[in-house]
Structure formats: structure tokens, C-alpha cells
Amino acid sequence: MWRASNNALPVNTNLAHRHIQVDTTCAECQSYPETIIHVLWSCMFASQVWHNDQSFSALHAPMGGSFKDLIWCAMDAENKIDIELFAMIAWAIWKRRNIFRINQAADTPDRVFTQARDLLQEYSQALPPQVSKHHQPTDPCIWKPPPPGSFKANFDGAIFTNQLSAGIGVIIRNTNGDPIATLSKKIPLATSVEIVEARAAREALLLAYQLQLSNVIFEGDSSIIIAALSTSDECVTNYGTIIEECKAVAHSCSWRNFQHIRRQGNSAAHLLARKAKDLSEANVWLACMPPELIPVLSFDNVSVSS
What we know:
Layout: H1 2-5, H2 12-17, H3 36-42, H4 44-50, H5 67-76, H6 83-101, H7 109-126, E1 151-160, E2 165-173, E3 179-188, H8 193-210, E4 216-220, H9 223-230, H10 240-252, E5 257-260, H11 267-275, E6 283-286, H12 294-305
Parallel strand pairs: 1-4, 4-5
Antiparallel strand pairs: 1-2, 2-3, 3-6
Organism: Fagus sylvatica
Domain Reverse transcriptase zinc-binding: 1-50
GO molecular function, one term: nucleic acid binding
């Protein structure tokens, strides 16, 4: 959503502006230039997708407006449009557009809508009660992007008692909120929540180290682990060895910034940790993300810009 709202998707008109020799016509309808607002909203195919939900029937893009203008119209709509569903449908349309362009069998409008709706339902079921839209705190905490030229790595852990396992989630984003890397990993159940959180912090540090990133802020929702990482004193707890390993990696890269954030501001990392429940091996996404994250990151970026 943030790429679409910032005119950063590689549609044909944008490629042409970068002096790339392409036909600027929309490959789907063959009638209009392929702009972001066209491919995601006004193209006949996209329109058929949106018409699967009547709540979008009263939404109209401003004349000559951008997709960002359309997002603001959706947020201000009197009929209370579901912004999460809006974001997921837009993503599904873009995904289908890319499949269509490489001449693969592409889904119908009805199928694209169903895919978006079902993915959103999966996300909602994984969302912890603390951040569900029906249980918002009176004083919400939102994720904030790092300063220009730096990165922020959020990490979290989740416990799966019935599986005797735990999950680790890590997401690294740049100052624009773009995901640089995400990770979901299942581990054996530890003897304490703090050990799981400490291992999540270690995975965040190692991922940033492997990517050779500098100026990284590490953020988690365990105040105990953040405090242990922030002090120069030796950690002598049952998770102390992990903390000292984290400090060694941080010292080698001159990373000194560890921040605590409340759970509702760390929902992206938490969702990745929960996602590990169904994994048999660690999953890492570079410069992209699993689709379940789209509504979370869209909310984070809209919250920051509003």
C-alpha cells in the first residue's frame, strides 16, 4: 500500500518515465495508460473485483487523483470502509496483474476477491486480542520508522504450548517503512518466555549482521530483554548466555540502540512469530513479505503518515 500510495509501483507509465522502452498501455484492457490508479482501481478487471463487495460501490476516485487520494477517500468514507480489506484487495489485484503479464493462467475477478478476503480472515484469526480492532487500547501505541539512513529491526516470540514449541518473528524496515527482510522460525519450547524473547532478539541481530546493515535500531516488547540488552552489566539469568551473545554481535557492529515498544506497536513481528506455528523450517523473505503482513504494515504506515 505504501508503494502504491507513493507512486512507486513499476507500472508501465512509471517505467516509461524512467526512460525504459515499454508500451504504456494497460495489458489487461488495452485501452488506457497503465497508471497505479488505473491498474488497481479503474481498469475494467479491477472494477469487477471491487464490485464483489457493496461497501466499495460508493467509493469514487477523485478526478485526476492518485491512488493515495483514493486511500484517503476510503478512510474518510461515511459508510466505514474496511481499510484492511481494501489493502488486501489492492494487493491481490497487483499480484494477479503480475501473473497475467508473464502469460500465466490468471484468476478471475471473483477468485481474486475471494483470495483477498480469505487471506484477511487468516490474518484476523492470528491477530492477538490486544491489537484486534475490537479491543484497541484507549492510548494506542504505533510503530514509528527509524531516522533517515537507518533501519529498525522488530522482534518477538510466541509460545505454542500444545506443540511444545515456540515461534520467533523478525522484521527489518527502512525509514520509509519498506520491509528489508522478514523471518519466521519455529524453535523447541524453552523453560521461560524470556528465553524465547532473548532468542528472538538474537535472530534479529544475526539477520541484520548477515545483511551487513549499519545504524540499526532493535525494538521488542519485552521490557526485561530490552533492559538486559541495554546494560553493560553481565546477565546472570537463565537466558544470560543468549544476551551476552547478542551483546557481542551488537558490539562488533557498533549497534547500541535497543528500544522497548508495547505489543500493539510490535504487531508485525508478533504475527511473524505466530506464523511459525505452521512451519517446519525457518522462512526468510528478503525485500518482500508474506501476504498476511500486508494489513499490518499498511496500518503502520498510514498511522505514521496521518
